[in-house]
Design brief:
Number of strands: 10
Helix content: 10-25%
Structural class: alpha+beta
Order of helices and strands: EHHEHEHEEEEEEE
Distance between the termini: 48 Å
Shape: globular
Amino acid sequence: TGVQTCALPIYVAAHLPDDDTFMENIPALGDQVDAVRTLSPSAKRRIAPISFSSPYPRPGPDPRQQSPFGVAWVVRMMKQLGYDAIEEAGFDVGAGAAAAAVKELEAYAGSPLLETVVEGGGIPTAVDVLAVEAEGRRKIWVVNLTDRATDVILAGLGQGATVVQGARDETVPAGELALNLAPYEVRRLSVSR
């Protein structure tokens, strides 16, 4: 019979609650998931709760859940969950900005993830990109992982691609788009070829 579900909680503030540690520890989720897979390779993997809360007493909820930082953290975590093929995830991030990002991204559950590459000349390591194929378009979230503004060149969009940012359409003849991201900004793009 065996184990049907392996569950793993993520309390990101359990160790060091600084912004850098929150962002830098997300890719380590893959190693934790691999360890769980060795125990029960056929079990469904569930990560829950995924929370800013600490398992230790705190005076109140983490205010970063209501900020651009919380949104950037959720988008990066969602990307990692997708790459690690997590079947179920349960976020506990309050009711503000971070929760809205969870709801927005839930609509793309099961959509194929697209490969993104960070290169030194274009996207600095301070940026992450989540991209999925959905509704005949590429949906892209460009995330500034730092507390500093950063310039980004998003390449590989395809010559003549149409990029939608908010209510604005833009054709990118060379297939590249320059962005200036505010600290912890998440820029949402919809790209058609």
